[in-house]
């Protein structure tokens, strides 16, 4: 099986409102890249909605979609964070955080009602978001003599590589992004250019 070098996420934050028997559920979806984004976003929403009863959330991270966390924030176990996460799973999106802020309306919804409310608020927020497909890229830095510039730039142009940083002096340095599925072919071409040295930086 070929490596899947694409994944789906959302382009920008999106919001929704769902009401059920007096309770109000505000859905907030955010594109995120790490756990570090989580604390600040939840803290901001708690400051924005200090009188809300619950701030429940689920986060899914990683290009392989394997990292996730949920929080019911005082709701009965499994009635809030898990339905939010299940919606992220069913949409097959990653690097997304959804927080659902609940204002209690005085009527108990019961377990099925809560699960439906948190699921629906999440679905509505994601429906309002633009889902985009991104590629899994590796970042490399190459160094070479200036006389090899034309050969190197031809490969970069032919392979449509994204240049992130470039330093052109007697000794040149270029930092570029390349799709995972292109790496082998690109490295093969660059290694044929005399004097080119490559350094792997990270995957992103």
Task: Give a written overview of the molecule.
The protein is of the alpha+beta class and 204 residues long. Helix content is 30%, strand content 38%. The protein contains 5 helices and 11 strands, in the order E-E-E-H-E-E-H-E-H-E-E-H-E-E-H-E. The protein has helices at 36-48, 81-91, 110-128, 149-158, 183-191; strands at residues 6-10, 14-20, 23-31, 54-61, 67-71, 96-103, 131-135, 137-145, 162-167, 171-179, 197-203. The strands form 3 sheets. It has a 5-stranded antiparallel beta sheet, sandwiched between helices. Strands 9-10-8-11 form a 4-stranded antiparallel beta sheet, with helices on one face. Strand 9 (162-167) and strand 10 (171-179) form a beta hairpin. The longest helix has 19 residues, at 110-128. The chain is elongated and about 75 Å long.
What secondary-structure arrangement, pairings included, does this model have?
Elements: E1 6-10, E2 14-20, E3 23-31, H1 36-48, E4 54-61, E5 67-71, H2 81-91, E6 96-103, H3 110-128, E7 131-135, E8 137-145, H4 149-158, E9 162-167, E10 171-179, H5 183-191, E11 197-203
Antiparallel strand pairs: 1-7, 2-3, 3-6, 4-5, 4-6, 8-10, 8-11, 9-10
């Amino acid at each position: 099986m070929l490596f899947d070098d694409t994944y789906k996420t959302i382009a920008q934050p999106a919001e929704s409102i769902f009401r059920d028997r007096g309770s109000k559920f505000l859905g907030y979806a955010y594109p995120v890249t790490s756990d570090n984004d989580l604390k600040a976003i939840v803290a901001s929403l708690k400051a924005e909605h200090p009188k809300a009863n619950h701030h429940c959330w689920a986060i899914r991270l990683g290009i392989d979609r394997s990292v996730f966390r949920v929080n019911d924030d005082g709701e009965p176990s499994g009635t809030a964070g898990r339905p939010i996460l299940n919606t992220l799973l069913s949409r097959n999106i990653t690097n997304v955080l959804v927080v659902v802020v609940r204002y209690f309306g005085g009527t108990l919804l019961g377990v099925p009602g809560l699960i439906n409310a948190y699921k629906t608020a999440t679905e509505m927020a994601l429906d309002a978001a633009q889902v985009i497909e991104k590629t899994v890229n590796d970042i490399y830095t190459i160094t070479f003599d200036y006389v090899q510039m034309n050969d190197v730039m031809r490969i970069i142009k032919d392979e449509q590589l994204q240049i992130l940083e470039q330093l052109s002096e007697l000794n040149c340095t270029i930092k570029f992004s390349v799709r995972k599925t292109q790496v082998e072919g690109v490295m093969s071409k660059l290694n044929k250019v005399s004097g080119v040295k490559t350094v792997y930086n990270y995957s992103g």
